[in-house]
Amino acid sequence: MPKKINRILLCASKGDLQIKDIALQTCEVLTSLNKEVYLHENLFSIYNKSLNKLKSKEDSSKCDLAIVIGGDGSMLGFAREYGSIGLPILGINLGKLGFLADIPPENIVNAVMEVVNGKYIKDNRFFLEASFQNSPSSEIALNEVVINSFAKAKLLEYELFIDELFVYRQKGDGLIISTPTGSTAYSLSGGGPIIHPNLKAITLLPMFPHSLSASALVIDDKSIIRLLVKKKAYVSLDGQNTLNLKKGEEIVIKKSSEPVCLLHPKDHNFFSACRNKLGWSTGILKN
């Protein structure tokens, strides 16, 4: 039986006029259903007495759902912030693709009402966790972890190990390590395979490798990846957090123990999303 949704956190990565309009409409729908609404700080400007301000991250534990207004970039950020502590995420898409945020603005009323009334699809995804040799803390990414050259137009040399087995020594622009969620993002633009979200796998895609035989490698999601860089490098997590690796430093990447739950309307379909977002089945234009 679906969990009751009574308290909703409404999030946005910015508070421009379009987002405020969508947020007000969403609040109107939720309050009409007698739901308790908490506002992320970027939406405090629409506050009124029928709403609540989220005063701290700990307050989010009171909520049953986070609704994110924005594109997939906003979804990635709030998934790391709130999804990683167990809060389900639902997205209203104001971006271009919307693989993660899949409710169009014109369908807010019906879709939001259905979801908060228990008519939804649960979609469990996993994060990648990156640990660094010279740091006690780790970072997470929902789409991908990218290791690339510190210097522009220069190759990065690195050694790759999987489950402590040596795989290869490679030169290239870097390596994209992605989840199935990230297979339709940066990895796809580099020629990587599309991985269905239900498949428990991790993809490793060399970026412009200095080899004619290098190709994408798909491994079990329980595998532990270790990378040793021979020169200084950048590490990018979901294209939003960037860290530095020193020459000779190691990075270890594995599936995080904390999953994230995305919610979708009942009519959501991954293959339909691919058709619409990636132009599958587009007809051939005739002169």
Written overview of the protein:
The protein has 287 residues and is of the alpha+beta class. The protein folds into 2 domains: 126 residues, Probable inorganic polyphosphate/atp-NAD kinase, domain 1 (Rossmann fold, 3-Layer(aba) Sandwich), CATH 3.40.50.10330; 131 residues, Tumour Suppressor Smad4 (Sandwich), CATH 2.60.200. The chain is built from 5 helices and 17 strands. The protein has a 6-stranded antiparallel beta sheet with strand order 7-6-17-14-9-10. Helix 2 links the parallel strand 4 and strand 5. The longest helix has 16 residues.
| Backbone CA Rg | 20 Å
Q: What is the H-and-E element order?
A: EHEEEHEHEEEEEEHEEEEEEH
In which order are the strands of the major sheet placed? 7-6-17-14-9-10
Mean pLDDT: 93
Termini separation comes to 54 Å
Q: What is the CATH third-level topology name of the largest domain?
A: Tumour Suppressor Smad4
- Give the full name of the CATH homologous superfamily of the largest domain: Probable inorganic polyphosphate/atp-NAD kinase, domain 2
User: What structural class do you assign from the helix and strand content?
Assistant: alpha+beta
CATH class of the largest domain: Mainly Beta
Low-confidence stretches: none
In short:
The protein has five helices and 17 strands. It has helices at residues 17-32, 72-81, 108-116, 186-189, 270-278; strands at 7-12, 36-39, 52-53, 65-70, 89-93, 120-132, 138-141, 144-149, 156-162, 165-172, 174-178, 201-207, 217-220, 225-229, 233-237, 241-245, 250-265.
Produce the secondary structure layout.
Layout: E1 7-12, H1 17-32, E2 36-39, E3 52-53, E4 65-70, H2 72-81, E5 89-93, H3 108-116, E6 120-132, E7 138-141, E8 144-149, E9 156-162, E10 165-172, E11 174-178, H4 186-189, E12 201-207, E13 217-220, E14 225-229, E15 233-237, E16 241-245, E17 250-265, H5 270-278
Parallel strand pairs: 1-2, 1-4, 2-3, 4-5
Antiparallel strand pairs: 6-7, 6-17, 8-11, 8-15, 9-10, 9-14, 11-12, 12-13, 14-17, 15-16
Helix pairs in contact: 1-3
